[in-house]
Amino acid sequence: MFYDAWMSPRQILIGAGVVGLTGVLAGAFGAHGLASRGVSAEALGWWETGARYQLGHAAVLLGCGVWAARTDRGAGAQRRLLGVAAWAFLLGVAVFAGTLYAMTLGAPRWLGAVTPVGGLSLMVGWGLLAAAGWWERKAERGATDNDAGS
Fold first, then answer.
1. Which of 56, 45, 52 is nearest to 112 (CA)?
2. Residue ranges of the alpha helices (H) in the chain?
3. d(C-alpha 73, C-alpha 79), whole Å
4. pTM of the complete model
5. pLDDT, tens digit, 9 for 90 and up, residues 32-75
6. Is the C-alpha dihedral spanning 55, 11, 117, 95 positive or negative?
7. CA–CA gap between residue 121 and residue 61 (Å, rounded)
């Protein structure tokens, strides 16, 4: 089906697991590895922000995967929205957290200008998630209307 071209529920759940696992690793490295290396308080703040957003969006990806898995295969538009939202979250985490991690490790500060692109991708993901919820409500009303006419 078309939604598989974006992301299947299984792929979304795998993505959630990878993002969560690497988020925990990043948090642990930030708490235990970076502090002892003389990283500035500002840079540690960047790292912590990246890890926090990464872990939070791992949970969101998990929710997207569960929602997509329980969505009827006939609701192709809703599953597509969830799949595209998952891609937006993955891209957003990679760019947002990735640039913050890179700057903490010494990459040029101009990467900070790229960080909002990741934030924008995260916002797109949230918007698509809202659209999927709207689509579900619309589908429920259509089913109710159809059931009443029978």
1. 45
2. 3-6, 9-28, 41-70, 76-104, 115-149
3. 8
4. 0.87
5. 999 788 899 999 999 999 999 999 999 999 999 999 998 876 66
6. positive
7. 14
